[in-house]
């Protein structure tokens, strides 16, 4: 039986050009038709196969940094990143082979041994699924300790949770905001996300759109309101709800998802599937909701 993947291009290069034909590939023994130009990750997810990702986002260009989405491709010497590898006719892909599982296990162990992944959604399940044992690398594997940077009232930077996935740099750059306020500085264990000359955010080119916060997979970039709730012990996801509405500030019509706990908004995001925002917002849409609870 052949499964046909619906046309839903994820990467920006293909958004304005629909595929003209389909190619057939085999994933875990199942033949699948995918649009020309689709990635292996799109094809894998269309079959309902759960493939972990960290550096990948539907609204950003794949950069192949984290390597947790790798799959085994017949005829390839190495494992390939499914988030960026395009499907080609006749490909035979294995998503859960021994090579794949071993590779993901080691990557997960290296990440957990070096940074705090405790607030990364789904990561605890990955530890169990792949039998990862981060403790085997010892305590000296931690990256360079950095105090939480709270130099503004909108969001904090807790780089002890940063895995250098590059998503914040992309969102700040030509994938979304075109501000280029941050980049990777240093090398090896000293590598870190930094502003130019390591100045505080208010003194940098940052326009506080918060798109870097929106794409961060580990909560290294976190709303100040959320950070305060976590520190006070009041953070409780079981009491939280989400409501998507339209930003009231201008006529663009950006979709805004309001996150609420105990009747109070504590942060705003935007759905990636929105054709207006594609998950991105400006400073007003991201942070300008405090008036709702003002007395």
Kindly report the average pLDDT value: 90
Outline the low-pLDDT stretches.
6-15
How far do the termini sit from each other?
Answer: 61 Å
The CATH fourth-level homologous superfamily of the largest domain: ADC-like domains
Report on this model:
- The chain is of the alpha+beta class and 295 residues long.
- It has three domains: 3-96, Ubiquitin-like (UB roll) (Roll), CATH 3.10.20; 100-141, no CATH class; 155-293, N-terminal domain of TfIIb.
- The protein is built from seven helices and 13 strands.
- The strands form four sheets. Strands 1-3-2-6-4-5 form a six-stranded mixed beta sheet, with helices on both faces.
- A hairpin with a 2-residue loop joins strand 2 and strand 3 (30-35).
- The relative contact order is 0.10.
- Mean pLDDT is 90; it is low at 6-15.
Task: List strands and helices in order, with pairings.
Blueprint (H helix, E strand, L loop, with lengths): L2 E2 L17 E6 L2 E6 L4 H7 L23 E4 L6 E2 L10 E3 L3 H17 L8 H8 L24 E3 L9 H6 L9 E4 L6 E4 L15 H5 L5 E3 H9 L7 E7 L8 E7 L2 E6 L13 H5 L8
Parallel strand pairs: 1-3, 2-6
Antiparallel strand pairs: 2-3, 4-5, 4-6, 7-10, 8-9, 11-12, 12-13
């Amino acid at each position: 039986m052949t499964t046909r993947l619906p046309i839903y291009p994820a990467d920006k290069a293909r958004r304005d050009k629909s595929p003209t034909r389909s190619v057939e590939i085999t994933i875990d023994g199942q033949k699948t038709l995918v649009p020309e130009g689709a990635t292996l990750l799109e094809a894998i997810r269309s079959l309902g196969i759960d493939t972990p990702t960290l550096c990948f986002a539907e609204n950003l260009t794949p950069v192949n940094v984290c390597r947790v989405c790798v799959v085994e491709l017949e005829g390839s010497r190495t494992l390939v990143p499914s988030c960026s590898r395009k499907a080609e006719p006749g490909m035979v892909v294995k998503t859960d082979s021994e090579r794949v599982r071993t590779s993901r296990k080691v990557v997960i162990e290296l990440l957990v041994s070096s940074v705090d992944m405790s607030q990364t959604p789904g990561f605890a399940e990955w530890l169990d699924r792949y039998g990862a044992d981060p403790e085997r690398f010892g305590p000296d594997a931690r990256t360079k300790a950095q105090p939480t940077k709270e130099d503004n009232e909108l969001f904090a930077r807790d780089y002890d949770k940063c895995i250098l996935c590059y998503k914040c740099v992309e969102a700040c750059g030509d994938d979304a905001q075109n501000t280029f306020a941050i980049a990777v500085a240093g090398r090896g264990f000293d590598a870190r996300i930094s502003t130019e000359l390591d100045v505080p955010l208010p003194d940098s080119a940052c326009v506080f759109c918060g798109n870097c916060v929106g794409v961060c997979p580990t909560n290294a970039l976190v709303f100040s309101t959320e950070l305060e709730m976590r520190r006070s012990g009041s953070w409780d996801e079981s009491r939280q709800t989400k409501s998507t509405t339209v930003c009231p500030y201008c006529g663009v019509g950006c979709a805004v998802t309001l996150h609420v706990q105990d009747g109070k908004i504590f942060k705003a995001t935007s759905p990636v599937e929105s054709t207006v925002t594609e998950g991105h917002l400006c400073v007003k849409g991201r942070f300008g909701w405090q008036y709702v609870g003002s007395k």
